[in-house]
């Protein structure tokens, strides 16, 4: 799904256009990046008691992130536990480039055996993401166009409970957009997780 083309300037602003085009470059993520961010994701937690066997049925995680274009910069995820090791998670993200762009996805989280207080997991999902492409017209004018792509994602992360009421979460994902000029990108986020629904 494409939005109407937006003409940026009748008088070419070559520096602006070059910046936009550089921002739109496809970027690939190698497995080494996942290793680096996951190893660095084990943030220290306060020494308070939590029971890993009493996982909350619902977890809410607001986050801030960094990554290659068009990864979201802020967002929130909500996970519903299906089994002791498997959760269904939905997520909404936002970034601002030439306009506000949204992303939405759903996926599965699979919990791996804990390492002390650290709870690693694997993740995979799919969804929609909005992004912008830029092109140069024959007269040198740059124009932008908003687009929407279907994207798949895979990755993982770690959760570190601070106490029974909140914890810290680090998540790294690779995305592959299937729309025109969507390409691959990566995202790394830190968030605060709030478990809910415990009895």
What does the model show?
By secondary structure, this protein is mainly beta. Helix content is 10%, strand content 55%. It has an 8-stranded antiparallel β-barrel with strand order 2-3-4-5-6-7-8-9. β4 (86-96) and β5 (100-111) form a beta hairpin. The longest helix is centred in the N-terminal third of the chain and has 10 residues, at 14-23. The chain is elongated, with a radius of gyration of 19 Å. 33% of the residues are buried.
Shape: elongated
The whole-number mean of residue pLDDT values reads 78
Tell me roughly what share of residues is in helical segments.
Answer: 10-25%
Q: In terms of per-residue confidence, which ranges show pLDDT below 50 for 5 or more consecutive residues?
A: 5-50
- Global structural class: mainly beta
Largest sheet at a glance?
Answer: 8 strands, antiparallel, barrel
Query: How many alpha or pi helices?
Result: 2
Strand portion: over 45%
Across the major sheet, the strand order is: 2-3-4-5-6-7-8-9
Total beta strand runs: 9
Distance between the termini: 44 Å
Measured on Cα atoms, how large is the radius of gyration? 19 Å
Order of helix and strand elements from N to C terminus: EHHEEEEEEEE
Write the layout of secondary structure elements.
Layout (H helix, E strand, L loop, with lengths): L1 E6 L6 H10 L7 H10 L17 E10 L6 E8 L4 E11 L3 E12 L7 E18 L5 E20 L5 E11 L5 E14 L3
Antiparallel strand pairs: 1-7, 2-3, 2-9, 3-4, 4-5, 5-6, 6-7, 7-8, 8-9
Features:
199 residues; mainly beta; 2 helices; 10% helix
């Amino acid at each position: 799904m494409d939005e109407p083309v937006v003409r940026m300037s009748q008088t070419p602003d070559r520096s602006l256009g070059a910046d936009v085009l550089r921002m739109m470059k496809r970027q690939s993520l190698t497995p080494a990046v996942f290793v680096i961010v996951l190893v660095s994701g084990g943030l220290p937690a306060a020494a308070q008691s939590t029971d890993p066997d009493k996982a909350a049925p619902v977890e809410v995680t607001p986050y801030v992130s960094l990554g290659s274009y068009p990864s979201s910069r802020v967002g929130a995820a909500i996970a519903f536990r299906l089994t002791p090791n498997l959760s269904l998670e939905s997520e909404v993200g936002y970034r601002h480039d030439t306009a506000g762009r949204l992303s939405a996805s759903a996926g599965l989280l699979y919990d791996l055996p804990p390492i002390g207080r650290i709870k690693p997991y694997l993740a995979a999902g799919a969804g929609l993401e909005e992004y912008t492409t830029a092109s140069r017209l024959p007269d040198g004018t740059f124009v932008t166009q908003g687009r929407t792509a279907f994207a798949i994602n895979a990755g993982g992360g770690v959760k570190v409970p601070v106490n029974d009421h909140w914890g810290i979460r680090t998540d790294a994902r690779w995305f592959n957009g299937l729309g025109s000029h969507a390409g691959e990108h990566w995202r790394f986020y830190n968030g605060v997780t709030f478990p809910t629904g415990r009895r």
